[in-house]
Design goal:
37% of the residues lie in helices and 30% in strands. It is α+β, with helices and mostly antiparallel strands and 199 residues long. The chain is globular.
Length: 199
Amino acid sequence: MNRLLINLTSLLLLSSLFGCQNEINCNLDYDLRKSNDSIIALINDDEGKHRLFSKVNETELNTDSDEVYRLILSKFNSGYSKVYRFTSKDGKYDLISKTHYSFYNDRQIDSLGKEIHRELTYDDWIYVKNLYDNIDFWSLPVTIPNSDYLDGVPYVLEGYKSEKDACTRRNYHITIRISPSDTTDYKMMCQRIIDLVDE
């Protein structure tokens, strides 16, 4: 009888430690998480990513910040890339927006142009976090098949949290969509980020 009580107590303790995922109801697909991990490892080793980061003077998101979100648009046909980075550290919230020009007036210039640094209000920070939460960012596939190449613009969303995400148990996630249709939640979310910065 004592042994049964000990076993039941152990089971209850284990379920309380690992059962919080069920309370969140994140419906995590473990095959998707495994696939995401593999793709993220490939992306992190990609030379093109490192070249772009170098040009826009950006680093990986696993920094000393508490939480960071970033949107990158690369408009290859127009010759420029834009970066929008939102950072939370020690109760302060910041936005950095950058534009890198590969071409200007049909001339190759390869130069970091306009750069904006701005403090965000707490409400702005929560707004950005909610945009990510509303599309279930942390559980999205990194890539999706059969993306439509309407204008060839990659939309890259990234997120980093010092505390692991409750569903995925990961600190970092990235998603890439090529020219998502205007009607998708993903593109509308990206447009709202752009609107917040440009307002």
